[in-house]
Structure prediction request, 184 residues.
Amino acid sequence: MSLEVMIGVLSREEKLAAMELTDPTDQVRRFAVELGWRGIERTDIRLTSATCLGLPVGTLVTCWSTSNLKFFIEVNQTVPGRFGGYRVSVVAEKYHIGPMDFEMCAFESEDEAVGEARRLAPLFARRNFRDKEWLRRYLERHPEKLLRSKKKWRGWKGRLRAGVTNAARPPGSWRPRGELKNSR
Prediction:
């Protein structure tokens, strides 16, 4: 069975009809840009009997995501067929973080989208993932999200995998950055 048949890819006419009803893509793009994500694209999927997962066959599900498979944001409708309520998540395998938990947000205008993006920025802003301290704090709060892609982690990621927190380290084992072990 081809992928198109499995996920029920829409014909051009079906896509145009779905977009004529209401198209929140500009609002979702504004939301994503405010979080630092560019190039978000809309995907419409018509559910088939093989993919319906309890929803009626033929339901149209719309989602938006960026194209990098190792590091992307995903925005899904909360209720298929209704726009305004969304679930947002980030997959950051590039930074050794598994799929993050979905957060709910709601917006029906670009101003509301900007407000929701600012609310969710501490968790989903793209710039966070370049900040090593933010990554460390996030993974210390959510150790189950650290991907097991290396045979042996070193440093704080190794301690996190072993279940040792900062408080459990022996006294004197922590040194500020730049301080050498045998400094005089």
About this structure: The two ends are 70 Å apart (CA to CA). The chain has a mean pLDDT of 79. Strands lie at 41-46, 60-65, 71-77, 85-92, 103-106. The longest helix spans residues 110-124.
